[in-house]
């Protein structure tokens, strides 16, 4: 009868020539076990039993040799482990400084890990099968690792760790994970996986540096090197422990790249001053910046630690670091979803509707805007925090946009709802179109990258307009016919007076590709124009006090003005047209 055990990773001591023991059908191992060749001895297989993975039977216990191999600590790091443990460092931080790069030992219940570490240090040779620890009765089923952690992972650590300030002790508890879960749940996001981020107080870097110098010293005595990069980072170890726990609560995977981010921000006021001595050594690193509350940013501390000599450091920050009275505080659990982008084309039928809210000195000049009419509905559906509106050019408040409309895109920042079907988009479009001021078509979700198409070749593209022109002198039909024959007319436009307050003064050449006139009466005619994008049509009509040359007025030897202007088409093939 097999009695299932759940084990931390173990070395398989049996030599299995060249076949993976799991595949070779070694008793107690199933093909799901992960076996890798040992680096130092290719004929030895190392069995890595993930404690969340398949069970290992009692007969495979014979493969397990010494207890310390459970921790995967190499013998050479023993002195580091001793040193740290005796100076107030937690077992998980000991694993980090002993360069244990496998996640499973960190996930061991805290008490078990502490016991194993003691055993390893006291060199007590062989161990008994772990029957008492994790015997699961007759069930062949494994319990999840988080369940196991829960059983014994009460805060039995006598004191807060002087390196992680309690993060690897108390802040990977079931209670804390529940706290994260409730925060995420109440925020009400739609997501299918998540990336977990941690913001650590900068003084942890000082404490780590202190421990690293000591560990390095220990290794030097053995004529060995210990690089800072060899040490497992606190963040990494923390994620190894907490990822599976949060995953289980949320019911989705923790991944390294996700649109949804759950972030935890830690601080530890009691030890805030740990960093302060670095100013005396590296003043330049700690210059006040506008946005930061404190000059002691992580970046600045890293820089300063890079500069400071070992002697200077030890003088100012003697080993061992003080044992803190309190654990790190959680100042924030943040959720954020990556932006969603929605694009489409709009028509504007009103001559009293600006494209974006028109506010001068805090006072609203027009009731609404194209931007507001569109985004109001989008914000409701996507439940975003804010938005950014952009478009392929813009029209004046009194200019209509007809034809197939003008491409636009809206970035919805931190949306809570993201699973939006085509049908919802269609309904949304219909809702937006419930006004006679604007009409939207081709409303769709696009990628951030696709937005570039909208701005692509904005200058080179052509635009078509229809203008109602007034002339001072009386005209006959023949007086406007010559315009039809003008092709590729080069004009020079100084920045119009009406936009000088927001655009730099410049002189730009523009091209009027074609014109077509339609006589109306003695003082009016309609002019259809196809021009280079970026041409100021109003100024081309009246001349802007000679700032646009030539212009309709100068060509017709009279004073001309523009009464109405419509954009007939914006020649940008994006976003793709959708079926109605
Ligand atoms: Zn620790």
From TrEMBL:
Domain Pus10 N-terminal eukaryotes: 161-335
Listed SUPFAM superfamilies: Pseudouridine synthase (SSF55120)
Keywords attached to this entry: Coiled coil, Cytoplasm, Isomerase, Metal-binding, Mitochondrion, Nucleus, tRNA processing, Zinc
Lineage, broadest ranks: Eukaryota, Metazoa, Chordata, Craniata, Vertebrata
GO cellular component: mitochondrion; nucleus
GO-annotated biological processes: tRNA pseudouridine synthesis
Catalytic activity: uridine(55) in tRNA = pseudouridine(55) in tRNA; uridine(54) in tRNA = pseudouridine(54) in tRNA
Major subcellular location class: cytoplasm
Subcellular location: Cytoplasm; Mitochondrion; Nucleus
The EC number(s) this enzyme carries: 5.4.99.25
Family, per entry: Belongs to the pseudouridine synthase Pus10 family.
InterPro entries, A to Z: PsdUridine_synth_cat_dom_sf, Pus10-like, Pus10-like_C, Pus10_N_euk
Keyword Mitochondrion: yes
Domain Pus10-like C-terminal: 341-571
Key word RNA-binding present: no
Single annotated GO MF: RNA binding
Protein name: tRNA pseudouridine synthase Pus10
């Amino acid at each position: 009868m097999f009695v299932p055990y759940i084990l931390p990773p173990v070395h398989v001591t049996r030599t299995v020539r060249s076949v993976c023991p799991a595949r070779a059908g070694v008793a107690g191992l199933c093909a799901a076990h992960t076996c890798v060749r040992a680096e130092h001895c290719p004929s030895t297989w190392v069995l890595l039993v993930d404690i969340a993975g398949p069970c290992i039977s009692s007969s495979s216990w014979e493969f397990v040799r010494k207890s310390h191999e459970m921790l995967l600590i190499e013998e050479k790091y023993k002195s580091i482990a001793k040193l740290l443990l005796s100076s107030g460092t937690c077992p998980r931080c000991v694993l980090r400084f002993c360069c244990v790069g496998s996640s499973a030992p960190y996930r061991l219940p805290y008490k078990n890990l502490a016991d194993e570490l003691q055993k390893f240090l006291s060199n007590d040779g062989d161990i008994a099968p772990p029957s008492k620890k994790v015997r699961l009765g007759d069930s062949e089923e494994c319990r999840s690792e988080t369940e196991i952690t829960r059983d014994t992972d009460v805060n039995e650590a006598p004191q807060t760790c002087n390196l992680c300030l309690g993060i690897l002790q108390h802040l990977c508890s079931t209670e804390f994970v529940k706290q994260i879960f409730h925060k995420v749940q109440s925020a009400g996001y739609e997501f299918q996986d998540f990336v977990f981020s941690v913001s650590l107080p900068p003084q942890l870097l000082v404490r780590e540096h202190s421990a690293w110098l000591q560990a390095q010293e220990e290794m030097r005595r053995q004529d060995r090197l210990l690089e800072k990069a060899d040490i497992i980072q606190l963040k990494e170890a923390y994620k190894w422990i907490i990822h599976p726990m949060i995953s289980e609560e949320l019911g989705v995977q923790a991944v390294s790249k996700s649109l949804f981010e759950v972030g935890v921000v830690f601080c530890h006021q009691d030890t805030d001053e740990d960093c302060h001595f670095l100013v005396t050594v590296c003043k330049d690193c700690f210059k006040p910046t506008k946005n930061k509350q404190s000059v002691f940013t992580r970046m600045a501390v890293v820089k300063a630690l890079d500069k400071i000599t070992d002697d200077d450091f030890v003088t100012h920050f003697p080993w061992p670091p003080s044992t803190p009275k309190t654990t790190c505080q959680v100042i924030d659990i943040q959720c954020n979803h990556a932006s969603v982008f929605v694009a489409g084309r709009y028509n504007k039928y009103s001559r009293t509707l600006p494209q974006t809210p028109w506010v001068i000195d805090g006072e609203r000049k027009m009731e609404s805007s194209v931007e507001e009419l569109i985004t109001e509905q989008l914000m409701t559906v996507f439940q975003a925090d804010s938005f950014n509106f952009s478009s392929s050019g813009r029209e004046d408040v009194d200019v209509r946009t007809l034809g197939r409309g003008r491409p636009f895109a809206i970035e919805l920042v931190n949306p809570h709802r993201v699973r939006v079907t085509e049908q919802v988009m269609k309904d949304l479009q219909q809702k937006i179109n419930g006004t006679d001021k604007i009409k939207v078509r081709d409303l769709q979700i696009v990628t951030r990258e696709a937005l570039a198409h909208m701005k692509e070749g904005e200058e080179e593209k052509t635009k078509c307009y229809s203008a109602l022109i007034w002339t001072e002198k009386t005209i006959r039909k023949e007086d406007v016919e010559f315009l039809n024959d003008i092709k590729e007319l080069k004009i020079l436009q100084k920045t119009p007076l009406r936009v000088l307050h927001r655009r730099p003064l410049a002189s730009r050449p523009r091209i009027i590709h074609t014109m077509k006139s339609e006589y109306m009466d003695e003082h009016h005619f309609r002019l259809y124009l196809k021009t280079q994008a970026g041409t100021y049509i109003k100024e081309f009509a009246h001349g802007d006090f000679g700032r646009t040359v030539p212009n309709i007025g100068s060509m017709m030897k009279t004073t001309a003005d523009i009464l109405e202007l419509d954009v007939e088409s914006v020649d940008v093939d994006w976003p793709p047209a959708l079926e109605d």
